[in-house]
Design goal:
Non-ribosomal Peptide Synthetase Peptidyl Carrier Protein, Chain A; mainly alpha; ACP-like_sf; 112 residues; phosphopantetheine binding; phosphoprotein; PKS_PP-bd
């Protein structure tokens, strides 16, 4: 039986596998696309490109919370809600997530 939670878990497992074998540049690309995909799900049918500002495209405080929760579930990286304001586009948030993911998964116990 598929539930929303099990599908998110499967997507997260596949994402972790892809990130584990990716170079730093590929990891950033993967995470940028992950941000865009999650935004498309939340803001559909609004098209989001890499440099689209989240707030200018209709992201609200409630949907920003939804976005950060989805991304945290998929990446296992703690994302403060303020990151949406500090990194307000898929390209910028993807870059932030790539750095945070690398720090969390560096093996030395570092956190983002």
């Amino acid at each position: 039986m598929h539930t929303e939670q099990s599908e998110a878990h499967l997507d997260g497992a596949a994402l972790h596998q892809a990130l584990a074998i990716a170079t730093a540049e590929e990891r950033e690309d993967i995470l940028r696309e992950t941000v865009r995909a999650q935004l498309a799900d939340i803001l559909s049918p609004t098209p989001i490109d890499d440099d689209s500002n989240f707030l200018e495209n209709g992201l609200t405080s409630l949907t920003a919370l939804e976005l950060t929760r989805k991304l945290m579930t998929l990446t296992d990286v703690e994302i403060p809600l303020v990151a949406i304001l500090e990194y307000p586009s898929p390209a910028r948030l993807g870059h932030y997530l790539a750095e945070a993911y690398a720090a969390v998964n560096s093996g030395d116990g570092a956190t983002a």
